[in-house]
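Worked problem 6 (solution included).
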Amino acid sequence: MQTAAKEGAKVVYADIIGQEGTTTKQLFNDPPEGYRFVTRRKLSNRVADSMQANWSLRWWKQRANAFLPMNLLISRFMRRHTKRPAGTVLTYSESSIVFREEPWVLWAEVATQVAGFSDDSLRRFRKVIERALSSPNCRGILCHSEAARRSFLRHLDADSFEHKLRVTPPGWQVTPYNPRPKRDGGPVRMLFVAGNTMPFRFKIKGGAESLEAFSALRQRFPNLELVIRSDVEPEIRKRYDSMPGVRIVSGLIPYQELERLFQESDIYWYPAHCLMSVSVLEAMNYGLPVITTDYYDNPEYVEDGRTGMIIPHHRHLPAWDTSEEKVRRALETPDHELVKALVEKTAVLIENREVRERMGHAARASLEAHFSLAEKNRKYKTILDAAIEPQ
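Solution. The predicted structure is:
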């Protein structure tokens, strides 16, 4: 069992089915004031870790989830009578419904998450899910974004639990801001960050379009660099690895090296075909203007023209709250307009250092005001306090 030792704190059981991401780890390492979180490392966590690193396994899981979501199956039948640890006052669940007779709160990035990230399964099991969310045992639904809240309203009859939907954006630890001086005439550097040891994330986060856009920009601005912090599919890497100005950093690296990449960059690229990544907040922490798409919740974190720039998303994409498989199928049809928009918006920042630095300062200020870990924990504490009150 993992713990974050704080004497006298109220203990919350983090019932996690699957991989523990950044949001989860923050709860263990930097919980809201007056709380600490504990969990049990389970077989489902180890299986999820394996699937995250293997796209073919993820594909089979997604196909299975369209018929019978694994997280719903585990929660409904295999975990229903498992007691939470003694001494805990509340259960916190990511992605999964809790069917045990105990108070619990749910965190979700999208409504389909509770049904294996499949809109087909969500429709099939919606009555079961609606009853669980309407139950007095469910004390709150922490929505990753306003887009996530709308997703619940769009897919489910939420009349009996809409009041439980609370928008709680992710947060990032604000660190001392000491931007490195950039010399005049030096190269302008873009940074793109996706997953390490997970090359399949490269495309869905806009990596292919980033390389195509850089190829066009390099013809106009020879003194230009692109650093890609991601594992990349071999066929894509073979095509671009020798391109002047491109540097691909793959595999596991120390955080100090990643921090240096942020510090040495001028613009952060996230032309994503998926929801917001905390790497966007990380870029804001280092005073970088962010260029992202208007897809799903990304515009909630980047203010167009002030903290970065928003470009239209891939024209063929379905809504993110369908399934990742459907999104990936749509990406098989290229959208050159997205690449064109990325080139045009980036060119503005390349040509005007004052504008990109002003946007970078505004991005840092936005993080401090709205998306800091302290602000996130303040909101979480309010929800947790209400959730443990007798009903």
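Discussion: The first strand starts at residue 10 and ends at 16.
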